[in-house]
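Structure ticket #2291
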Amino acid sequence: MADTTALIAEMARAARIAARTLSAAPTEAKAAALRSAAHRLRASRDAILAANAEDMAAGEANGLSGAMLDRLRLDEGRLESIAAAVEVVAALPDPVGSIIDRSVPANGIALERVRVPLGVIGIIYESRPNVTADAAALGLMAGNAVILRGGSEAVHSNRAIHTALADGILAAGLPADAVQLVPTQDRSAVGAMLGAAGLLDIIIPRGGKSLVARVQSEARVPVLAHLDGNNHLYIDRAADTEMARAIAINAKLRRTGVCGSTETILIDRAFARPQEIVGALLDAGCEVRGDAGAARLDSRIVPATPIDWDTEYLDAIVAVAMVDGVEDAIAHIAAHSSHHTDAIVTADTQAAERFLAEVDSAIVLWNASTQYADGGEFGLGAEIGISTGRLHARGPVALEGLTTYKWVGRGQGQCRP
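Resolution: structure written out below.
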């Protein structure tokens, strides 16, 4: 532990020096560094894909789930998407230095609240090599230095991606220490990061429930938490059947391993054609676990148990419950949701507006798939995660979420009486 503590301290000191450079860097310098990093990602395609093949082989040998393997897998298309996302971030408006508001109180000092970087960000994540690039790009563009600690499942992929990013950033004239990857998979490195008060300004965990729980329990550094996505889709009595069917299939099955995947579908007992919804899911290869009312809709439905309402499956499994209208749906979501993303399908504006107002989640949607819970789909470029808390940032965390603010006052010789 002493060795990893010293390692993290050394990395944090180097990151602090880099962060000072980044905080003063012009927008175009940061954007140029990211464009250079994207170029290096493309130029390193063969090395990155070969590294990912190693991770995939190890993951399959170690029995990783299909959802985990899907998160881990890279191909030419996904790698191009990663590089393109870095370029998208480079083209976004720079939040650093923007003025949130101005005021002149009675003392005559002209005050401004100005956006500034958070500083040095520690990011701990599992099995998603794209996070290496997304976190690096967002952190740098927001003027922060980042220290990345990826999961062992993606160790070779992360190292190859990080090498390309650091080479590109350095070639553009910014410090390579702006983006560092912890070089060891020793679990004590995570503990060292969590205990690095005064060295790291914030920790962002991105992974499963056990990782986030450990971070929140042990951290001596502020945490921006991304909890599990136990997301709900409520099909109201006034829903269009074809729309409900299409959204249900997409919300559950487009990609089962992402945090925006729907895990529970609630169907109003007054909805006319519930069999078409569950039948479409079953026909598409999804296991359906239903309460007593749902189980009567199709003989293929497996009886649900109490734990199903609180489970993030990240697989082709969905829980289905019959409810008595929007009020009952809201109550079920309040009892079981992880406050990530919940959606309603309905043609009833009053029911929809009640749902949007009363469901206390980071993202609430009307007539749209929960799979839209993504920073890119929100026009934010990449995202560093979806915060389900209430402080600092909520929902997709992108550039603005990686800044704080300071007060700047301009006086004319005022002395307080």
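Closing remark: Residues 2-24 form the longest helix (23 residues).
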